[in-house]
Every structure is written in C-alpha cells, then in structure tokens.
Write a structure and sequence with these properties.
The structure holds two protein chains of two kinds. Helix content of chain A is 35%, strand content 22%. By secondary structure, chain A is α/β, with parallel strands linked by helices. Chain A starts with 11 loop residues before the first strand and ends with a helix. In chain B, 33% of the residues lie in helices and 24% in strands. The chains are: A alpha/beta, B alpha+beta. Chain A: Produces ATP from ADP in the presence of a proton gradient across the membrane. The V-type beta chain is a regulatory subunit.
Amino acid sequence: MTAIGEIEYTDVRELRGPLVVIGGVAGVGWDEFVRIDCDVGESGERRHGLVLEVNRDLAVVQVLEDTSGMDPERVRVSFAGAPLRVPVGPGWLGRVCNGRGEPVDGGPPVFGPTSAAVGGSPINPVRREPPGDPVLTGVGVVDALTTLVRGQKLPVFSAAGLPHLELATQIAAQSTVRGEPFSVVFAGMGLTHADATFIRDALEERSAAGELVLLLNTADDPVIERILAPRLALTVAEYLAYEEGRHALVVMTDMTAYAEALREVSAARGEVPARRAYPGYLYSDLASLYERCGRIRGRPGSVTVLPVLTMPANDITHPVPDLTGYITEGQIVLWHEAHAQGVYPPVDALSSLSRLMRKGAGPGRTRADHLDVAAQLLAALARARQVRELADLVGRSALSATDTRYLDLADRFLHHFMAQRMDEARPLDEALERAWQVLLTLPRSQLAMLPTELIDAHHSPEAKEQDG
Amino acid sequence: MGTVSGTDSARECRVLRVAGPLVELEYVGGTAMYDLVSLGEAGLPGEVVAVSGNVVTVQAYEHTGGLAPGHRARPLGRPLSVRLGPELLGGIYDGLLRPLSDSGDWLLPGAHEGHGAAHSWWFIPRAVGQQQVTEGTVVGEIRAAGPVPVRVLVPPGCHGRVSRLAAEGRYPGDAVLAVVDGTEIKMGTSWPIRRPRPARERVTADAPLSTGQRAIDLLFPVARGSTVAVPGGFGTGKTMLLQQIAKWCDADVIVYVGCGERGNEMADVITELSALEDPRTGGRLADRTVTIANTSNMPMMAREASVHTGATVAEYFRDMGLDVVVIADSTSRWAEALREFASRTGELPAEEGYPAGLASAIAAFYERAAAVTTLGGAQGSVTVIGAVSPPGGDMTEPVTAHTERFVRCLWALDRDLAYARHYPAISWSGSFSRDATVLADPAQAERRGHVAALLAEADRLADLVDLVGITALPDQERVSVLAGRLMREGVLQQSALSARDAYCAQEKTAALVDAVLAVVEECRGLVDSGIPAATLEEVDFAPVIRVREETGPHEAAAVAERRDAVLARLRELR
C-alpha cells in the first residue's frame, strides 16, 4: 500500500459517523490516503482513511474501518502525500481478501510488481477499441439471448428473494473466452456471512486454478470498505487486462448496497441530498466504476463488468437501477414469475437486452444463425405473452390453433431452454439447439425471421407432420 | 484553450480549501468572475465562479487529487477560451477543446495541452490589399480536409484597411494571414466559451433542416436555427436517433457533444463517422463533424463546460455563413454537473437538489441557437438538439420540465414504442413542433394533418379494442385501426441499421404517406360498399409496409408501384 509520511497529527476536532476532522494540518492534499493509529480500549489499533476535504488547516478524513472506539485524545494521524494505491499483479489470483484488500484466507499480504491508484484514470475515448467477441457464461439464456461482449458493462437487475447471487456466482465460476487467458475478479459488497460462505464454496475450484480474485465485504464490515471494494476489484482487473493481456470479468454484487454506503457517507458529511436522499453525484460515481470496462487499441486484454443490483421493492425507476441503466449497455432482468415456477435462472428475456450483442455474436464470433435465432425467439415470446393475456380473458379454448402453439412455446421456453442446473455449464451450441427445438413448436409460417434453408436443416419429420 | 501555465498575470495566491472539483483561493485582486485560474504545480485549469469577501471560489476542470491548502494558484486574467480553427473538423476533443488524439491511453490531469499550430493549411486570399473591410468580411479561405469551406474572417470589433495580406500558399496554423488596422488576423481565433459570438441580427428560422428521419421530417419538422429537446428514458434509442441525425441531416457542420456519454458509445461514433460517406458530398462524414467527447467518467466540471464549448464551435462555423447542428447528449448529465457543484458550494437547493439557477442556465444554452445574418452579411444558423435523460422516465423532473418550456420542438421517446421495437420511438402524441407551421408548404401541411388525425383516431380506438376486442367495433372504425397500423409500420418505423432506409428523402416520405392514405381511402370505399372489415384485415398489405425497406432513399416511383399493386388487389374484392 501507499507509503506514509513521518508527521503525526493528534488534533482531532470532531468525530462523526465514519468521519474524523483533524486540525492543524499543513500540505495535506485532497484524496490522500491516511493512516490512523488509535488506542482502542487497552490495545493499539491501526486504521486507514481517505481525505474527503481540506479546508485551510482542517482535513476531513473518512475512516475505512469506522470510528467506533476512537477517542479524540488517543488518535494519531499521518498522511501519505498521495491517493490510495494498491499493489497490482498476478499475485492477487487465487486470493480471498476483504473489501480493503487484506487477506482473509490466512495467507500473507498481497504483493505485486507495481502499484496503481485505486481511483483509476479515465480511458481516452479515442483510444478505446469498440467491444467485440463474446464472453461465454455457460448460462444458456444469457449466452443465447443477451450475449455478454468483451469490454461491455452488463448489469443484472434483481429483487429481494431472487437467485441473483447464485447466477452471478455461476457466471463467475464457469465463464470462458475460448481458450484465451481469462480471469474473474469477484467483489461482494454488504454480503451476509451465509452468502459469503456460499460464494467461497462455489468459486473454490476457480480460485484454486488461479483464475479468480475474491474480495468479500460482509454486511457487518465497515460501510466505507464497501465503497472501496469495487474500485480495488477494477484496479486489479485493469492490470490483469491491459498489462498482462488477460480478459478480465469483474462481477460486483450488490451495487445497491454500494450505493447505500455512498448515501450513508454523504449524509454524514451533510451534503445536499438529491433523489431519494442519494447524493447528487451518484450518476458520476457509478459511472466512474462502470466506465472502467472496455478494450484499448493495441492491447490484447479486456475488462468486462457485470454489476448485480437488487431493485428495492422491485422498482426499476429507483435511482440505482435507473442511473445504472443509463450508463450500462443493456441489462439482464430477473423475473418473479419464472422463479415462482421453480425455473432457474429466472431471466425475463423480454425485458433483458444486451445492446452490444451484434458485436459479440453471429457469424465469425459465435454461430452464423445466432442472431436470427435470438431475434425470432424473442419475437415469438413477445407474441406468446400477448396470447397469454388474451387467454386469461377469453379462456384457452377460445384461442386459434396457432395461438395455442404460442402458449406451448412459452412453456417449452421456460422448461426446456431457460431452465438449467446451477452447476451446469451449457455450451452455446447446446443452448442454440434448444432454442431451435423451442422455436419448432411453432408452424413454419410463424418463423418469418429465419432463413428458409436453416429451417429446413432443423425441421424434424415429426414437426413437419404437425404442420401438415 | 492553449496552455494554462502561461505567465499572463504575475499575481499569485494560495489555495485555501479543496473538496473535489471545488477549490477556494484567497482573493488577491485582478480576479474577475469566470476568469481562468491555474491551480497548483500541475497547472490544473479552473474557472472562477464566485467571489465572496476575500475568498474566490473556483471550479476545477481536472481531478484535484493531491492539491492542498497552501499550494500556489495563478489567476490568468482572461476567461475560459477555446482556440477555433480549421483543424477542428474531423477532430475529437475533450470538454475544453483539447485534442484527445494527442493523449495516451489514459487521461491524466494536466497531461495534454495545446493544438492547431502544428498543422499547416492551404490559404486562398479573397480580399485584396488596401481593401476597406469591416468585421465579418471574408479575408480568405482555407482548404480543409473535407468539403466544408473554412473562411478566415475579420474578427468582431475590427475594421479598416487591409494593410497586409498573405499570398495563396501553405501556412502553419499560427501564421499571420492579414493585418487590418493593426490587428493581426490568423488562421484560427480564440473565443471565450460563455460569451455568444456576435451576429448582425437574428432572423426568423424558416428554412427546414432535413434529418432524413420520416417521423421527424413528416410530423415534427425542425427549422435551421431552431431548438429541439429529445427526452427519453434509458433503452428508448435516444443515442441511436441522435447519431442518425448526426449522420444524415443536411447541415454543413455537425458538432457532436458527448456529454456524460458512455465511452464505448463514443468509440463507436468515432469509428462509424470515419467509415461513413457523406451522401451529399461524397466525402467522409467525419470531415464535417467536430466531436467533443466528455464521457461520464471524465472530469465532471469539464462536462459542464462542454456544452458551451460545443455552442462556441458551432457559432464559429455559423459566422462563415454555414448551417450548423449542435447535438448534446445528454443535457441531463450537464445539469447534474451543475447540481453537484452547487451542492459542494453549499448553494441553497431548489427542486431535487438542483440549483435555483437551473432554468436560466438551460434557457441560456438553448438561446445560443439562432438563424442569423452574420457580421459579414451572410446567412448562417446554429440548430441545437439536446437529449434529456429523465430519471425513471419521469417527465415532470426539473430538467425535462424546464427544457420543454424553452425549446421549439420536442421529440419525446416512448418506452412502450421502444419495447415494441418500434424505432425511432418518437411518440406522436407526446411530441410537438412549433416550427411546423412556419416550415410547411400547403401540400406538406395537409399530409401532416391527415397523418396526425389518423394516428390520434387509431390510438383512441386502441384503448377501446383492449377492452372490448376488435370485433366489437363498427367496420369503419376497424379500418381506422388498420390505418393506424399501416401508418406506423409502413411510414413511421425506420431502421437505423437498414442499408437502404437509414436515410429517407422528402419525396420518398411523401410517397409512402400518400401510398398508405390511398390504401386507407380505398378500404373505406370498400367498407361503404358492403365489404366486411374482417375481409380487408386478411388482405396482405406487405408490399406497402415493406417498400420502405426495399427501396432506396429517393425512389418515390417504386413506392407508387407497390401502392398500385395493393390498390389493384383491393379492387378485386369488389
């Protein structure tokens, strides 16, 4: 971590929430990293912080480990003279750390050949390489209908009670990029201990293979660690991607817990609140995380970001999902109805969208028929949903024969195409074949978006009989 | 803006307070509102936004990490200005008009500065020695990379005799090309971004800007020199629509301000513009475009400046007698920058934490749009198209609500239309164009009236159909529902990805509308003569629906053929 200067300050003027105000400082810059030595009870303890504001000889410091037990008379503060930096390098792979990057796996501290500022720097838009080529998650519905593209930011919108953590973990455990070097950085924020254990167990294999960095911040860890954890994850991923040429997938869950931490700190600072009391800079702050995804011209790696967020009260207009939606390139939405039917993963395919799918799927990238099949399947599902509404009004028996087939299609879609086991890595080919089988529930006349020769190739004799 | 480490002013002062982009300095005299300040050793640029007692408040345009009280700051004694010149065309700049192409993979504070002087350009004099000239007179022309004629003008406030004039030839960007009354005229000029460039007078905006998008040109047309807001929630295709306009509208110069945009999207715009051909001139589209990219993770306050920078660039080209379109995506992010800064200065918040000055700030920005007679007597215009991103799709939120009041056109994007994959998702019931009455010739106005009435009727009936089913409607009303569908699918939908239909000329738009209207008219006649509506609904209308995709942007005749084919089929029903 960042080297610390020699001067110690002891003039603590105020302690409030996670903040410490220190007086009599000189030459302390904004955003500097801070070391705080304090005597808590009988023993000494070392804590850390960041400078939020400097005003003449006062410095407002946000304490990463919280201020509990701190006594203004028994605190010594020293400043690093530079923003927080962390060591970066392949040493992170296979490690489990907390939100500050300190090991919780019993191993030694993480070292690296060099260090980088956790805040990162914006990528020059001119130097960006537009995203392309897929990250295959092994989750059929995601790969086939909302393909994740290298360099993309694609969030999972979920709600309380839905298996978003399972889905995020599954994606982290089994994603691949067709033989090229690949790493996953998983940042968990505000997790329950049970969730943290679940994640560690589920990702153990990948971790042992040296392909995973796991940062876990539990709900009872200090709030400010939650703000640090995703930045740490991205900083580590950027090095793996742009310096070491790997494709890095950064999974960040749960961004709602992150935003709440941000709100808590903002309130402690007495900032003017905006929508739902979140700070006015929530958009810029989220953007400073999500925008760190991408590819850079002339560098082989990529950073792909998969944030997971729970929509409070399932409200998609809540500031966190809303602002996220404005920044990210699509969304994967989880769906109560499918979950209630016991289908995993319960993705609402019609509300989900990968805006960059055209750049990551199709001829030369996945399979020649991929985009056509996806478009036809979505169109058919949209029609099926209308038919379902009609059926609810007039009864199934009043439907035309074609409409009844659409209901069958919706059913097969859920159980034959979407449903898969949590430990099942489904190859894309299999997912697309299943999509074909679902589509062929319909008569040929309803498959206008698919080229005739493809339908001929997939049309089984049995289905032809049904058509006749 | 050149460099901020110059020695324009000898005075120095000390930094007192740093909180993100907010920096407070001690007042030492010689510091005026909106003057530029150089902060710290790195010379970070900042702008004075308040002076109170002996404290000067500055908004910094770069990341202020490491800046500390006691560090030196230098007021530069001049407002935040940008360098305007021929090199802008085809270039990509940040919010302060510093070229991004000169920077590395990552943008580091204070790392990139200055541009223009390194290039050289071919100059052709248009004035003659000893000629009496006034402000705005064309001194000469510069041959830039693309088709846009870049003119060198006598600057505002300057008149007299041309005492020196360079001969035709190649000159570096900072060469003196002419001297008028002791004033040196160079290829480029510098202008403060917050001060509108002067023109002789504003004139009525009454020439149409063709966007090549049917839903706009037909229903909600915009005049050159007018203002447009495009509100739409996420996923409604806002950026896509704006990019279409940037590519296909018939302006001379496009200034595309990506203000708090996605980085990948900017990368895409940049790549696509370089690859696409301008359908009117055959040159690269990039050569008529100035791109200002301030992605959402780039410094916040430069985002605030970027819309003014864009307007200033536009006015520079307008003064040459050109028609310019400024596209700002998204003004909501710009407003958020205002809010963030206001909150840091402790300003009293008004609606949703925005400063009370929000409405006037929005109005001032849109007022930089105008059709004018330039100082030199030419006609030029700046059209401003601003995207608005209402949080949660809430159209009553302050930025959307205020913007609606100040613009002449509103293209509201509708989530339901987007969800139904109807693109562009411009809502016909929620949008307006106050330019429509000024622009339309009688035939166009009549067509627009027909289409609007037809869509409104179909919408009204759609609600009924949801309740009672289509079969419960009288036959004439069933034809109205059918007419609405034909109009939506056959005319209003337009795919940005289509090879033939991404751009549509006026004559094809008119032909498509006339085709649908003629088919509807025939259907009404058939129903009157006793043919049941159910029979009509079974007719294959695909030729008139698909013809938009199957014909090129100017092929009005082909549209008429398809219309006749469908009409013939209908007549067979009698």
